[in-house]
Design a protein that fits this description.
By secondary structure, the chain is α/β, with parallel strands linked by helices. Strand 6 and strand 7 form a beta hairpin. It contains four helices and seven strands, in the order ββαβαβαβββα. The protein is globular. InterPro entries: Thioredoxin-like_sf, Thioredoxin_CS, Thioredoxin_domain.
Length: about 140
């Protein structure tokens, strides 16, 4: 399977759905730069995402997910390119199960974009940067 288009199941979220193959790889070989993105938690979700004055990009990830590290790098680039126009956050899906369940996160990585507190775009899996940029542009238009 091509790792660039893989979607990784969140084990703690899949207990109530049909068993599926869990893809495994050594996530430690990937860096997970979060320099330009901020971690959002259940405590900061409403203020940072739902009540934001600017559009918000949230990457749902897990620490054991290798492809998530690849998406982190892309999101960091987007955060730089769109600084001041969107806010970028990451949310650890295994640690924030209530939010992950509310947005029906069954696999990671998932990138969601919000505008005026409403979810308006979703990109599931590891995709080329152009997919994320196109979603950001649609939200900004």
């Amino acid at each position: 399977m091509d790792d660039d288009v893989a979607t990784w199941m969140v084990p703690s979220l899949v207990s109530n759905i049909e068993p599926r193959m869990h893809l495994c790889m050594d996530a430690s070989k990937y860096s997970t730069p979060l320099e330009l993105t901020t971690v959002v938690t259940g405590n900061s979700w409403e203020k940072s995402v739902l009540n934001s004055k600017v559009p918000v990009l949230v990457e749902f990830y897990a620490s054991w997910c290798g492809p998530c590290a690849m998406v982190h790098r892309v999101i960091d680039e987007i955060a730089t390119e769109y600084a001041g126009r969107i806010d970028c956050f990451v949310l650890h899906a295994d640690n924030e199960l209530q939010i992950a369940n509310e947005y029906d996160i069954k696999a990671v990585p998932v990138v969601m974009l919000f505008k005026n507190g409403e979810k308006c775009e979703t990109v599931v899996g590891t995709m080329p940067k152009e997919f994320y940029v196109a979603a950001v542009e649609r939200v900004l238009s």
